[in-house]
Structures are given as C-alpha cells and as structure tokens.
Amino acid sequence: ILLGSHLFLTIRTGFIQRKLPTAIKLSVTKDPDAPGDISQFGALTTALSATIGTGNIVGVATAIVAGGPGAMFWMWLAALFGMATKYSEGLLAVKYRSIDEDGHVLGGPFYYIERGMKQRLPQISWRWLAKIFAFFGMCVGLFGIGTFTQVNSINSAITGFFDPNMAHTVSLFGMEYSLATVIGSLVVAIFVGLVVIGGLKRISSVAQKVIPIMVVVYVGFSLVLIVVNITALPDALVTIVESAFGLRAAAGGALGAIIIAMQKGIARGIFSNEAGLGSAPIAAAAAQTKEPVRQGLVSMTGTFLDTIVVCSMTGLALVMTGAYQIPGLEGAAVTTAAFQTGLPFIPGEAVSFVLMICLALFGFTTILGWDYYGERCLEYFSNGSKKAVKAYHWAYIACVFAGPYMTVAAVWTIADIFNACMAIPNMIALIVLSGVVVRETKDFFKRLEEANGDEETMVPYKAQ
Questions:
Q1: What per-residue confidence (pLDDT) applies to 27?
Q2: Rounded CA separation 295/37 (Å)
C-alpha cells in the first residue's frame, strides 16, 4: 500500500523529487513574518529528531539480517518515491492547520483528514477517521517507535559496551538483567522527563543542536569505513541489487526471497523515514511559513537525509563487511561487528563507544520527537484535555523505563503493527487530497516563475 501510494503521488506531483536542491535551500532559510510556533528549520529538525533514530542503525541491521542485502534496495526505492508522500504531508499540514486564540498552532493529519476530506467529500463526516489516526498515533508513541524500540536499542548498546559478558546482574521480573541495563534505563527516563515536560520549544531547541552534530559524526564515521574498504563497494552494490530480485536465492526460492526483502526493506524504511506514517506533518504544521508548498519541500528533505544518506551508511557497512551473516548476532551488535571488522586499525572498544554514543543520541532525540507527536494526537483525541496530556507525559516516561526489559523481536513486531494502523488512515487522506496537492504545487511554482525565482517578490499566497 505504501509503495504503491508513494509511486502514485510521485506521478501526480510530476516527480517533485527533482526539486530537491530547492528544498534543501529552503530548509535553511526563513519565511519572514510568517505565523507558526517554530522556524521551518526547527520543524525539520524536530521531524528528523523523530525519524533519525535507532531505525537508522538497528532497524537497517534487522532488515538486512532477516531479508538479506536486497532489503536495502527496497528501502532506497521506498525512500525515493516516499519523498513525494512526505512532500504531500507537509503541504497539507500547513494548508489545513489553524491557529487558536492563544496563538497555538493546531495541525497535522487529523486536521487535513477532518477538514480537507470534508471539502472533497462533504456528504460524509470524516472526524471518525481522524480520531482513529490520533488513537494509533498515541499508541505508536507509547508502545512503538517512540519508546520501546528506541530505549531497548540504546540499552542494548550500553550493556554491550559496559557489561558485554553480563558479569554484573540483578533479578527483575523473574529474569536476570545487567546492572548497566537497569542504570541506563533509569538515566534515559530521567533525561527524557526533564526535556518533554518543557514542551515543543524545548524539544525543538535540543533537536536543532543535537541533530546536525550526530548526523555529521555518524556519516563521517561511516564514510571512513567505506573509503578504507572501497574495493568491496562495487561487489556490495551488486549483491544488494541481485538479492533484491532473488538472484542469489536458492533454486525455487527467488519469489520468496523477493517478497521477504521487499517486506523487511519497506517496513524498516517506513520505520526510519516515516513517509506516509503521518508523524512528520504534525511537526510541519507548527512551522513558521505562509506557503504550504514551501513546507512540503522542506519536509521532503527529511526522507532524503534519513534514508538515502544515513540508512545507506549502515546498509553499506553491513554488506561490505559481511557482518549481517555472522550467526547469533542481532540488533546493534550486528552494526557494531560491521564497524569493528571494517575499521581494524581502530580498537574495538573505541568503535563500540562511538556507536553507543551515536545510538544513544539518535534514540534519545527520537524519543523526544515522538513525545511531541503523541501529545498532539492525544490533544485531538481528547478534545484538548490538559489532564490527559499530563497523564500521557508520565505514561510516556514509564514506557521509556520499561523498554529495555522486552525482547528485540517483540518491540519491533509491536512497532510494525502500530505503524500500519497509523499509516492506513493517513494514506487514505493523501490519496483523496492528491488533487489539492497538485493544484497548490502548480500555483506555487507559477507564482515563483512569474517572480523570476525571487521568493521575496512573489505574489502572496491565497488559500484555494
């Protein structure tokens, strides 16, 4: 459903991905005197704080271990076409948002589902579909991408570094856990609590400082591995493409191999870049801009940076070193093994430490971003109940603390189920409202062309 919808929106928008250079430029420039809670760059980094997380390190590893190297190809394809979906989400989020009496921005998929679809199909009230989206959005935050998977992966890396042999354990819930796991979960929960209680502006402030640094560190670290092992790169790319089409599967297993590679690649891709999930437009709606198309372009860059850039670093490291074939390894341990193999001149402990820090920061900012998403979903679902939001904060912190005590397989399965439940109502709205996206896109670029590419002298936007 997601891949087909990505392709549909790519065709309808006239392959909007070709505007990527313009989108990157707009993401770091301000829209002067525009309404909104945070800058467009702040909205982008808040969205990236939720998307660039453990999915980029652990999610890619689980996809390739389960689906083979071909999963990386399908992840790339889903991201390429998914940029059109992320563009559409950002555009609609700004177009159908509203600003209350306190200057508080209200926007996101629930509003374009309720208001946008009401305009297109007035004979039906679509509030029920928006409520379904909001409910599952809360669930994804509490039990999926937002908490369990992130903190489980963070603590896996912490335990792997500080207590790999489980030498110091305590008994909890009838199971033995490393003392590093217990301390790590408590520390992460405390730091999350300190930030999320501060609300969107504090989350955005932290994201704008942490996101650029952590992406540069991880991508730089990965590029060193690729350059050092550059002779293995051509074969790795061939392996990825051949595996995507079952050409390296055992006789008679080609179709099965393709299906598994597609499912794992697309599932981990949606987990990582969230195109079509409906999460990023919640942050996009708060952006300071007058132009819906402008925000759509800025939102689109998030998918490119997340999957085409960051996920590719992990995927290439795994395939070039063959770490995905090491038996008995799962999650963060696979990626750690890849970097230790690919960077033999760096002590193994130093590699583990850098990856632990990257994973901790990636996961931590994702936890923060998803608290904001879940809170906005709850605001809509509960008709703005402040008591419900306060209770959600404490429940969220409790889930962060509980995450490390679940199995890797359980947390990723739970995340996939809730992702699907959240994505379906959002994709229905995007397809129904695709005509609105096309009309707004044509109008923006027509006005930009008439102004000879000078955005400051463009005819002001008028809601259609």
A1: 76
A2: 14
